[in-house]
Amino acid sequence: MRNGYSKVLKYNKQALIETMTDNREEHLKDYELAVQEYHVQLVARLESMLEEARLNQLRDTDVGLVEPVSYVEVYDDAIMMFDMCQEGEIELSQEEFRQLVQDKWDWKSHFNTNTAVYASAAKMKML
After folding, report:
1. CB burial class (10 A; 0-12, 13-18, 19+) of residue 41?
2. What one-character DSSP code corresponds to residue 88?
3. What is the C-alpha separation between 46 and 40, in angstroms, rounded?
4. Residue 90: which domain range?
5. Is residue 2 part of a domain?
6. In a domain, 6, yes or no
7. Do residues 53 and 16 touch, judged by C-beta distance below 8 A?
8. Interval 41-49 mean pLDDT
């Protein structure tokens, strides 16, 4: 464990569910914004490629875009698991707390990098 701390602590189930639900909603909002901009960029690139193909100048068929990935199912699974738990308190390790409460998943930095590219492009269009 990080910093040598490996103690398991108990947390209020309802507070955990509310935090995970908030994290899920933020994730979904970021994902949906990224998907919108991804589709805008994809259509623009495909139209450009089609024009190049019509002129017999198409050299590369790779659109060069990374499709956003949703991890909302990860949140849904955790929320459902906790919601169905009969206990009022749930024990979490430091790693579980890091993921479920602090929203620091192993996949999170890749998700943030991918969605940030599309989010910044969308925000630039709003200016």
Report:
1. middle
2. S
3. 10
4. 11-126
5. no
6. no
7. no
8. 95
Give the model's confidence band at 101: pLDDT under 50 very low, under 70 low, under 90 confident, else very high: very high
Both tokens assigned to 101: 């409460």
1: confidence class by pLDDT, cuts 50, 70, 90: very low
Q: Is residue 39 part of a domain?
A: yes
- Rounded to the nearest integer, the mean pLDDT of the chain is 91
Whether 1 maps to a domain, the answer reads no
Given a cut of 60, is residue 41 above it in pLDDT? yes
Q: How confident is the model at residue 43 (pLDDT cuts 50, 70, 90)?
A: very high
Interval 65-85 mean pLDDT: 96
Contact criterion met (CB below 8 Å) for 81 and 87: no
Question: How far is the C-alpha of 89 from the C-alpha of 46, rounded, in Å?
Answer: 52
Here the tokens at position 6 are 């490996």
Other C-beta atoms within 10 Å of 99: how many? 20
Phi, psi of 91 (to 5 degrees): -85, 135
* Cα–Cα distance for residue pair 15/33, rounded to 1 Å: 27
Helix (H) or strand (E) holding 117, with range, is helix 108-126
For the chain, how many structural domains are there in total?
1
